[in-house]
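Supplementary notes for students who missed Thursday's class. We covered one full example, reproduced here. Read the sequence, then the structure, then the short commentary at the end.
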Amino acid sequence: MPEAWEISKGDAREENQITIFLIFCEDENDEPFYFRSFEVENKLKINCIPNQKKARLNLMNTLAYCEKIGLTECVNHQYRIKEGVTENIWCVYDRDLEQRDLTDIKSHDDFNFTTAIQTAEKAGLKIAWSNDAFELWVLLHFESVPTGKRLHRDYIYDRLTEIFKVVPEVADKYRVAIQSQSFGYKAYLKRRIPFLTFVLPVIKTKTDHAMIHAAAIETTFSHQIPYHDCNPCTKVHHLVRDMITAQ
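Structure (token representation):
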């Protein structure tokens, strides 16, 4: 099985060669396990680099990693993915707002979010960003979300809690916590085993719904709106579409 750094840099690709995605994730549990679920033996390989820190550090770590393994070159004083690199290099990047009061977001926080994405795009990286959190993509498998005002990830976690606590397998496993009202999606289902056992099997049957909902939300924001003001919004469906196409 090839490791994450065992990737080709040639211009030619054999007709039956495995397609490789190199995905840098902030999380070490749900994001990598979710993306790896799209692998197809001898056809599509998903190499996830987990735990790449949050916010701007994720994008900077991605560029540094690509430079280390020889995927980038410096052109006109700027690092770029080398021409001829055939791998699909993606960074999964969340806003993860610290402020619960979304009217109290500092201007430099907005600036950092948008300019970090712009820097990565200029370098040739593909960005599957979410504003505010990756769990927005999970929620879109079940329902759309209200638009017109910013959503904090607490809203997303609250909705996922309500959805999953009535999933029969979850209701049986965590019935004591649910009855005591201590059950929450973030605390109970974001970990490795619960995510693989209870969340992934459900959302994998609803990918089409998530794709439709994510695309509809994306169209509500014009290209003139800076990334930090695109909330709620996620670009994960673009990565998922490319993986499905490569299967």
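Commentary. The CA atoms of residues 239 and 245 lie 10 Å apart. Strands lie at 19-25, 44-49, 72-75, 78-81, 88-94, 126-131, 233-234. If anything here is unclear, bring it to office hours.
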